[in-house]
Amino acid sequence: MPDTAIAQLTVSRPGPGHISDNYPITVSLDDEKIGRLSAGKTVTVELAAGTHRLRAFNTLMWKTLTFEVAPGEHARYVVSNRAGWGTTLGAIVGTGWFYPTIDREG
User: CA-based angle 97:61:64, to the nearest 5?
Assistant: First the structure.
């Protein structure tokens, strides 16, 4: 019989075809690394129901999200890099900054 206090978390990265595909994103759950996602990759983990902290780090910047997950729930998030004001500014000197985002699916 499955443990009803357990939930699941899936974090995915959009498939190839984005300007930031060459920059992997390290994903941590409650300060523990759960994966380093390149374009099109996914990681799924089990976690206790309750409040958790999800962090996406692209080696330069990070985004942190606190979320709740109920027993038996399967929370799904998409992490990606987006362009911002620093992307254009950095491109002038040969490198652009990307800003990680975390979006809940569904």
Answer: 135
87: containing domain: 6-104
For tokens 């500014």, the residue is 89
Cβ atoms of 104 and 80 within 8 Å: the answer is no
Give the CATH number for residue 39.
Answer: 2.60.40.10
The model carries a pTM of 0.84
- The full DSSP string for 37-53 is E-TT-EEEEEEESEEEE
Asked if pLDDT for residue 1 goes beyond 50, the answer is no
Longest dimension (CA), the chain: 58
From edge to edge, which strands make up the β-sheet containing 50-57? 32-37, 25-29, 50-57, 62-69
Counting the structural domains of the chain, the total is 1
Q: Is 98 exposed, middle or buried (0-12, 13-18, 19+ CB in 10 A)?
A: buried
Give residue-wise pLDDT tens across range 32-43: 999 999 999 999
Q: What mean pLDDT is predicted for residues 47-67?
A: 95
